[in-house]
C-alpha cells in the first residue's frame, strides 16, 4: 500500500511539474536601433528569447552583434515609451546577456508583460540610454 501511494504521489508531482512548464510563456525578441526611444542610426542588432513561467519566474537570453554592450535590462514600457528597469541582465561572453537565476515578476509586472508592456534593451557607451531594443510580445 505504501509503494502504491508513493508511486501515485510521484506521478502527481510529475504531472504538476509538466503542467507548470507547459504554462510558461516564451517570446522571441528582435532588438533593433529603430525600436529605441528615440531611435538611433546604429546598425547593431540582437535576438533572443525570454520565458516567464506560471510562477512568474523569468529566464532567457539575448545575443547581440555590432555593439559593445555595457548593460542590458528588461524594462517596463509600451512600444514608443521608455520605462524603469525591472531586471538587469548578466553579461555572458562578448555578445551574450542572460536573465539572472531567481528573477521573478510581481503580479503587476506579469500583467504588463502579458499586455506587451515590457521591453529588453542593450546600452552602450555611444548610446547610454539604449542602443538596441525589442518589445516582449506574448501571444
From TrEMBL:
Ranges of residues in domain CHRD: 23-139
One Pfam family linked to the record: CHRD
SMART domains, sorted: CHRD
Signal peptide: 1-24
Protein name per Swiss-Prot or TrEMBL: CHRD domain-containing protein
Signal keyword on record: yes
Taxonomic source organism: Herbaspirillum rhizosphaerae
Keyword terms: Signal
Keyword Signal: yes
